[in-house]
Amino acid sequence: MSRPILFYDGDCGFCSSAVQFILDHETSESFLFAPLQGELAAQELPGVLVKDLNTVVVKHQNVIYTKSQAIFFVARYLKKPYHFMHFGKYIPKAFSNQMYDIVAKNRYSLSKVSKTCKIPSENERKRFIH
């Protein structure tokens, strides 16, 4: 697959909101999306990554980006001003991953309970792989 695949915790509201944010703010239809709990993740990722639902993973051209590095990779494909977050890749990885881990650990409490759920368009649905 030529497009990057973003693997995320499919049971996490915060993670699903992040995916929706990407859909709403990407410059073009750059990404495919797949839950870490799905068959594609089991086929494409090392087992340790599939089991760690606290880690967002991007796979692109056989390179795997995790945690903050995955976020910075995604940011390159977002519209301004979010695009500039990709410069975070120059922050020491140990520090940026520590910040990522704090958010990941608290992601369920950070999730807003929504009474509505955006239904993806037909075109958006084609970009989700299970």
Average pLDDT for all residues? 90
Domain count: the total is: 1
Number of strands: 4
The helix-strand sequence is EHEHHEEHHHH
* Biggest sheet features: 4 strands, mixed
Characteristics:
single chain, 130 residues, alpha+beta, 4-stranded mixed sheet, 42% helix, globular
Give the arrangement of secondary structure elements.
Blueprint: E1 5-8, H1 13-25, E2 32-35, H2 39-44, H3 47-51, E3 57-60, E4 63-66, H4 67-75, H5 93-105, H6 107-110, H7 122-125
Parallel strand pairs: 1-2
Antiparallel strand pairs: 1-3, 3-4
Please give a structural write-up.
The chain has 130 residues and is an alpha+beta fold. The chain has one domain. Helix content is 42%, strand content 12%. It contains seven helices and four strands. Strands 2-1-3-4 form a four-stranded mixed beta sheet. The longest helix has 13 residues. The chain is globular and about 40 Å long. The mean pLDDT is 90.
